[in-house]
What does this fold into?
Amino acid sequence: MEAPVEPPGEVAAVPAPRFLADIYEDVSRCNKCSLCQAVCPTYQVNPLEWETARGRVALIRDAMEGRLELRDIADGPLSTCLTCDNCMAACPPRVPTAAIVDRARQELHEQEGYPRGQRWLLRRVLPRPGGTRTLHRLSRAAQVTGLHAAARGLHITRWIGTVGGMAERIGPLARRRADQRVAGLPAVTPPVRGRLGFLICCYQNLVAPEATEAAMRVLLANGWELEAPELGCFGLPAQSLGDGPAVREMAKRTVTGLADLEVDGLVGDVASCVGHVRRYGRILGDNPVLGDAARRVADVTDLASVRLERTGWRAPLGPLPWHVTIDEPCSLSIDGPERGVARALLARIPELRITPLEEAAMCCGGPGSYATGQPEHSDAILARKFEHVVATGADVLVTENVSCLVQLRVGARRHAPQVRVMHLMEVLDAAIRAASTG
Ligand code: SF4
Ligand code: SF4
It folds into this structure.
């Protein structure tokens, strides 16, 4: 007897994404458990569903499946996300919300076109090594002539958009950039262990050159010879502003610029920049000419602190009778080994007291141009951060990222003028100097 033929079962139709097909699987992994709520800085200061990873991911999925347009969520869910990935640390299926939001911003630009001023900055100014020099000269000239102070007083800086807003927050620039200070560095302390290429972050080069100088001094004192190639921006600003072509172009220029460098590895002192270069394999992996070189650059790049801890600290450290607390840049890989490195290095300094900071891994509200684009969110997140800083009683707040340095210095001016904000390498450099003078 023949078996009866079953009618075909009802299979639920799976809507095909209209765009961003490459992240559809990531977006679909969200199980709506809401564990991201408690750790999302934006939800903490504005407790609405669309301020969580769950809300953002659901809305982006709605857009992909045609229930709304990306433009409908551009000004809230897409723009207020810090892309800090703090949610991912609490997320059981590890939904990469920051990467999803980055891709959605990029898709929106591709649908609507890139803002003209932003495109000029990301495609014409920052990729060129001379771009930073020009910005520095213009800004210094404005400072020296009093134009900068006048512009701030009249709030003209705010009218000229993101760059003006950032200039207002940063304040006066140092006379000499980090790349101009290389010539005055001390000789390497023998015996020499190897030669490293130092990746100078173009933003830190302008706004915190003393931190980069300190990082170089620390590496030299630990037996590493340095070479600092002249490069443009590595591409992180383009990544956070959603300009995919600029991200790839800056990665290509950097990889090409490093091609002839004969070194044992690459280091940088800015956590977010180094993290971005370490993604070059993914950014250029499909490039038939530069793919392999991009993967090599990514593989040999380290944060200076990580390189020092991994290869063994050597320089003598003198006593620093300071009380410090550490804010961890959210750009450090989630629960990766880098998270404990700053503390391990500082713990070597005699007489230094370290008090743990509550919510140390939570973003300070200052990545990239966030503070100028989302001032209310940024200020509220910063105020919360400083409640925890003040509670430690520390007189020095340590970080390892340039955006955090700028943001936390603003926070200290407002909420805790007694607290000094320093890059990790500045503290280590001070301890090395204390040893040599003690
Ligand atoms: S990336 Fe940061 S701001 Fe964005 S949803 Fe996750 S925790 Fe919140
Ligand atoms: S923690 Fe992860 S899986 Fe859970 S709701 Fe948030 S994004 Fe979705």
